[in-house]
Amino acid sequence: MNSVPLQGIRACVFDAYGTLFDVSSAAQDCADVLADKSAPLAALWRDKQLQYTWLRAAQGRHADFHQVTGDALDFALETLAISHAGLRERLMGLYFTLRPFPEVSDVLRRLKAARLRLAILSNGSPAMLDAAVKGAQLGDVLDAVLSVEDVGVFKPHPKVYQLALDRLDLPASAVSFQSSNAWDAHAASAFGMRVIWCNRYGQRPERLPGRPDRMVTSLASLPELVGAA
Asked: 13: which residues sit within 8 A by CB, 6+ positions away?
């Protein structure tokens, strides 16, 4: 994918978990207990968390992301035979204050200085997102923090992407959507948004409708890609 800036972008909308916030940081912060199971737990917890969002959406049995995250953690802890007093509560608490990736604050502030509108569009519950944004001290640069709870279904349902357009009052062609999740990037592209896939984890392209406009391995080059350099 090329590095030519996208044209006509007026807003940047970001996925939260895995894109702005490091989903592995909760398990990393419990390495004193988890030791060499930290990475396997983080990976299985995340995989099951996403699976549960898709399965609940397919069944029409929505539950907020906090419950889904807890259910996925319970599955991962049992599967990996991890049992330590207080660990579940500690991990769930840390999920409210996941660390942002190193480049995030600077990139968002550069975009804001270029007069682009900025928003988060996430599966996260409002309370989880509010805590993460406050913990990362990003509240002053964001114009909106949007949760799927407003539409009652998880990504990649089109209602979620439409929520961002409605709140920003912009056409899809004027919005650059950033996600580290390939399936999310493809879905937003199929919906009509311009998409920059932040492929932090070396994923292969999905065989799904849509095609991200650009692929990067971090958000550091985003200002240049949306004409905000």
From this structure: 118, 119, 120, 121, 164, 168, 175, 176, 177, 178, 193
Q: How far apart are CA 150 and CA 126, in angstroms?
A: 9
CATH superfamily for domain 25-96: Putative phosphatase; domain 2 (1.10.150.240)
Q: Is the pLDDT of residue 76 over 70?
A: yes
Q: Given pLDDT bands bounded at 50, 70 and 90, which one contains residue 3?
A: confident
74 catalytically annotated: no
Q: Distance (Å, rounded) from C-alpha 108 to C-alpha 120? A: 11
From the list 15, 22, 64, 184, the catalytic residue is 15
Tens of pLDDT, residue by residue over 125-143, are: 999 999 999 999 999 999 9
Homologous superfamily of domain range 11-22+98-225: HAD superfamily/HAD-like (3.40.50.1000)
Domain boundaries in the chain?
11-22+98-225, 25-96
